[in-house]
């Protein structure tokens, strides 16, 4: 039997406090439905594959077409094999740390700070240029605040957001560096700053990373983040 206690699964623990979260439980399965959790309507799943597949069929009929199962890559693969109307839609990494990263500095740039709302139009413009695929955008639901690093001339060089955090798990998203400023370690600096800020009073900091983004994977690994393979599914 797989232990599905929420206090043992960070994915479930991340989903449970989300606004409007709904929970379904069976002896060996749990499904948590969260609208707009890190950009998607998610069904966070955990448990024994047969039990999860049976419970998920009920939940899918109740939650509608936009909700997508999300869990460890192993479990999603097992569940998709048991629920023919589903297919794996994405595989990526849940990266996390429970230890402080430690501040990092970069020569020729101002130290990272939290930005005020007056800077959000500037953040939006930079993300459009540097990372248009970002899940986090200023003003979107669940996106709480933005940190940034400016150059000595005042231009915004790199940003990262706190988004979809819970009381126990700080969540980072929207990390982007202006193309002309890449290769200087700014991404590592902003991530170290935000990670340590979010870890204060919490047990861990996490984020989601696409496997194709090798530079980001290397940055987070270098900062001490560990990787858990996760996946999402969708209806065929």
Automatic annotation (TrEMBL):
PROSITE patterns: GNAT (PS51186). Transmembrane segments: none annotated. InterPro entries: Acyl_CoA_acyltransferase (IPR016181), GCN5-like_dom (IPR013653), GNAT_dom (IPR000182). Coiled coil: none annotated. Residues 108-236 form the N-acetyltransferase domain. This is GNAT family N-acetyltransferase. It comes from Actinoplanes subglobosus.
């Amino acid at each position: 039997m797989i232990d599905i206690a929420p206090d043992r699964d960070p994915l479930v623990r991340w989903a449970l406090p989300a606004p409007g979260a709904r929970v379904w439980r069976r002896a060996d399965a749990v499904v948590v439905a969260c609208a707009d959790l890190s950009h998607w309507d998610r069904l966070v799943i955990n448990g024994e594959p047969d039990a999860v597949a049976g419970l998920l069929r009920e939940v899918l009929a109740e939650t509608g077409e936009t909700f997508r199962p999300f869990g460890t890559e192993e479990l999603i693969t097992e569940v998709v094999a048991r629920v023919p109307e589903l297919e794996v839609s994405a595989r990526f990494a849940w990266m996390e740390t429970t230890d402080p990263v430690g501040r990092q500095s970069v020569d020729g740039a101002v130290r990272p700070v939290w930005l005020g709302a007056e800077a959000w139009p500037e953040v939006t413009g930079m993300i459009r240029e540097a990372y248009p695929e970002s899940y986090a955008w200023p003003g979107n639901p669940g996106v709480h605040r933005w940190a940034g690093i400016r150059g000595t001339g005042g231009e915004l060089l790199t940003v990262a957001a706190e988004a979809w955090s819970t009381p126990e798990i700080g969540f980072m998203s929207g990390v982007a560096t202006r193309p002309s400023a890449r290769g200087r370690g700014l991404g590592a600096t902003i991530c170290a700053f935000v990670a340590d800020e979010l870890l204060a009073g919490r047990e861990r900091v996490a984020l989601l990373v696409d496997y194709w983004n090798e530079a980001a994977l290397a940055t987070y690994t270098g900062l001490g983040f560990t990787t858990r393979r996760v996946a999402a599914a969708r209806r065929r």
